[in-house]
Amino acid sequence: MSLASLQPIEEKPAVNQDPKTPTTTTSTPTRTVSQPQPKPQPRTQSSYLPKKRAEPTIPTIILNACDDIINNFIDPPLKYSVDPRHVLSDNFAPVDELPPTECEVVQGSLPSCLDGAYIRNGPNPQYLPRGPYHLFDGDGMLHSIKISRGRATLCSRYVRTYKYTIENEAGSPILPNVFSGFNGLTASAARGALSAARLLADLPYAIRLTPNGDIETIGRHDFDGKLAMSMTAHPKLDSDTGEAFAFRYGPVPPFLTYFRFDANGKKQPNVPIFSMTRPSFLHDFAITKKYAVFVDIQIGMNPMEMIFGGGSPVGADPAKVCRIGIIPRYATDESQMRWFEVPGFNIIHAINAWDEEDGNAVVMVAPNILSVEHTLDRTDLVHALVEKVRIDLRTGIVTRRPMSARNLDFGVINPAYMAKKSRYVYAAVGDPMPKISGVVKLDVSKGDERRDCIVATRIFGPGCYGGEPFFVARDPENPETEEDDGYVVSYVHDENTGESKFLVMDAKSPRLDIVAAVKLPRRVPYGFHGLFVRQADLDKLL
Where does Fe cation bind (predicted)? Predict the structure, then answer.
């Protein structure tokens, strides 16, 4: 695919732009591991299979036996994309917990600005699933590398969620896997994500790091009873105001609810969005200094399919027209919500958004998934293009420009530029997804020149794959520091040797030069999202 074939797209204004009556639309390679057994089997240190922690209870044994009958005699063979023998193999396979263990710096030295902890999450099921399993399912494990005065310590711990706890006590998988479906049964499965040193799952779980680098789950945190349900794994933090903005979505009205937290962490009233007329899979969103920006994509939710059909409650609707919704950042109701039709704009992750200087337009940067029908079924067929999208609030015209033809996702910026005009994006290279072969740096200010915006590239090497990059500023307290003055960090695994490393790359260099590499005491499985917490912020959590 060439960038030349992806010319800017100018959309017509939406038919109805009245804020009170918003427009709505109704319209990897094969791997082999052992076969799953009727009971979870204990594993040795070298095994990839999850560990059995307790003997199953009598009711669990009975339920498992019934499930075996369903799996063996009623259900068709598992699809390749949800067969745990495929999904949970190689470096996607789970690992045991690891107490704080010192690491070896094998290249360069760790910059002093990295004193703190880089924490990344991943699914890591504690038991081999008995039925279909999707990469997005699992229990939630955190892998933290704590850095102090040039030395590093790795720790891996499960988050003690509701799902983890009851299955750990039962000694067997009990709750179904939401994304892959579970033979017509249903329950709520907890999954983890990170933001601002707090872990978010089915309700936010607060965590802390001990002085020696261990990870402790403090417990569920419902903001004094004001957050009774889940929230996005991608809340937006405004470093200028100290506020946080978030949302939740679900299968029953209101399908979208927007809310925020003030600088003291106090949750403000919900803003239900009833103009979202169908349940949509909203994983992420963006904020500007004036607005919150949502994208209603073609991936929808159908929980009845899971309950009665045994399939996934999430699926793509190719007939649906995507929309961008813009609501004032401090809205108290949805009366000023505006929707703009943007055909084919399907995002899972947002990178950034900002207001133009005259206040008449909003700009959003995000990876657009071209093959949305494969997002939850065949991630190896997914191709995402980073686009810059401009929404003219006066005319309703939406203009889109691709930033590169490469398959890119998991884009990040300097966190200090959240909700402000930013120039640089660091994104993961899919080769194919979900494997990430490297990191690129994009200069999105070049997008108006109709050229590829990649200005720096770091490919990890044959058989080496990483994860989402994260940007750490060299001197965040200095207002004169340039936007790209800092480091890009990521875990990287070498499938040839079985070793994992923590890489530190120079964010300003044209090749994203490696300035430090830390050999980890054991492999870190591929995962999802992470963040860096400075030592000063860690000290506040003690």
Answer: 234, 283, 349, 529
Answer yes or no: is 134 a known binding residue.
no
Task: Identify whether the C-beta of residue 260 lies closer than 8 Å to the C-beta of residue 244.
Answer: yes
Q: In the structure encoding, which two tokens stand for residue 134, read together?
A: 């999707």
CB of 297 within 8 A of CB of 284?
no
**Sheet of strand 454-459, all strands in order from the earlier edge strand to the far edge:** 408-412, 424-430, 436-443, 454-459
Residue 86, marked binder: no
pLDDT in tens, 249-275: 888 899 999 999 998 888 899 999 999
pLDDT of residue 126: 78
* Cβ atoms of 273 and 342 closer than 8 Å: no
Report yes or no on 2 lying in a domain: no
Which pTM value belongs to this model? 0.80
Class of residue 109 by CB neighbours under 10 A (exposed 0-12, middle 13-18, buried 19+):
exposed
Confirm whether 49 is domain-assigned: no
Whether 82 and 88 have beta carbons less than 8 Å apart is answered as no
DSSP string, 311-371: S-SEEE-TTPPPEEEEEETT-SSSTT-EEEE-TT---S---EEEE-TTSSEEEEEEEEES-
pLDDT grade for 424, boundaries at 50, 70 and 90: very high
Distances (CA, A) of 16 to 21, 340, 400: 7, 9, 21
Instruction: Give the total number of structural domains in the chain.
Output: 1
Would the annotation count 283 as a binding residue?
yes
- Distance of CA 328 to CAs 168, 221, 376, Å? 44, 27, 32
Looking at residues 92-106, what average pLDDT do you find? 94
The one-character DSSP state at 2 is -
- Structural element, H or E, at residue 246: strand 244-249
Mean pLDDT of 144-150: 97
| Maximum Cα–Cα distance across the chain | 67
Residue 197: predicted pLDDT:
36
Domain assignment of residue 219, yes or no:
yes
Residue 408 confidence (pLDDT) above 90: yes
The pLDDT-based confidence of 461 (bands split at 50, 70, 90) is very high
For 504-521, how does the pLDDT look when each residue is reduced to its tens digit (9 = 90+)? 999 999 999 999 999 999
Alpha-carbon dihedral of residues 291, 294, 295, 301, nearest 10 degrees? -170
Q: Which CA distances in Å does 48 have to 45, 91, 99, 168?
A: 8, 9, 18, 18
Q: Is residue 54 part of a domain?
A: no
d(CA 35, CA 55): 20
Residue type, position 489, single letter: V
Once rounded to an integer, what is the mean pLDDT over residues 368-392?
86
Q: Flag whether 529 is marked binding.
A: yes
Enclosing domain of residue 395: 80-539
- At residue 303, the pLDDT reads 62
